[in-house]
Amino acid sequence: GQSLEQPSEVTAVEGAIVQINCTYQTSGFYGLSWYQQHDGGAPTFLSYNALDGLEETGRFSSFLSRSDSYGYLLLQELQMKDSASYFCAPQRPSGNTGKLIFGQGTTLQVKP
Amino acid sequence: DAGVTQSPTHLIKTRGQQVTLRCSPKSGHDTVSWYQQALGQGPQFIFQYYEEEERQRGNFPDRFSGHQFPNYSSELNVNALLLGDSALYLCASTKTEGGSPLHFGNGTRLTVT
What does the alpha-carbon distance between residue A93 and residue B32 come to, in Å, rounded to a whole number? Predict the structure, then answer.
């Protein structure tokens, strides 16, 4: 089976940097996807790491260590609009079956 | 380019009734998946359709069924509704080949009374 662990809540102030960690257990080789979901909205794809290392997309970066089954999402220069839930999800690197396993997610609250 | 569209946006049903939710995938996508998201929880995988067949299924009872049409659109049917079926139902689409990410619709909020 699969299991995921993320912190349930994180609070930070505008302009700060926050890191959301994710550890996972899977029965095969997986990369790691990150999704953002605002209250009442659809989950939105943020990033995907198929290989070890850091991927940077603007203010967001994501890191993966497959040997440690560990990844994190780094959000820089936090803005109020970054307040949302963030989900990590292991994903097969080749071909997407449409099945992702999500944990409970991390609720990020950005304060002025 | 329209993304994933779902209808209706909100629905209220009574216990024991049946409901059908609809989804049109993003243009160019051939795989549709359905997820149930209870309040405060992450989305839970219900099933996935590809080439008009159910390919994978999560831990949901047979009351949950679906269909995919030749134009790749999909329906989710839930029979004998229970109060616990109240949730946000999300449709997601992707291309089977290439490892593309899932694109989600805005969901249908189902309330069972």
Answer: 18
Q: Is B74 on the interface with A (CB under 8 A)?
A: no
Q: Which residues of A touch B107 (CB under 8 A)?
A: 42
Single out the residue of B95, B91, B87, B94 nearest to residue B105, CA to CA.
B91
A76-99 pLDDT, tens digit per residue, is 999 999 999 999 998 776 555 678
Residue of chain B with shortest Cα separation from A32: B101
Percent of chain A predicted with pLDDT > 90: 66
Q: What is the distance between the alpha carbons of residues B24 and B4, in angstroms, rounded to a whole number?
A: 6
Successive 10-residue mean pLDDT values, chain B, 113 residues: 91 98 95 94 94 93 97 98 98 82 94 98
Q: Is B43 on the interface with A (CB under 8 A)?
A: yes
Put simply, whether A1 touches B (Cβ < 8 Å) is no
B103 touches chain A (CB under 8 A): yes
Compute chain B's Rg from CA coordinates: 13
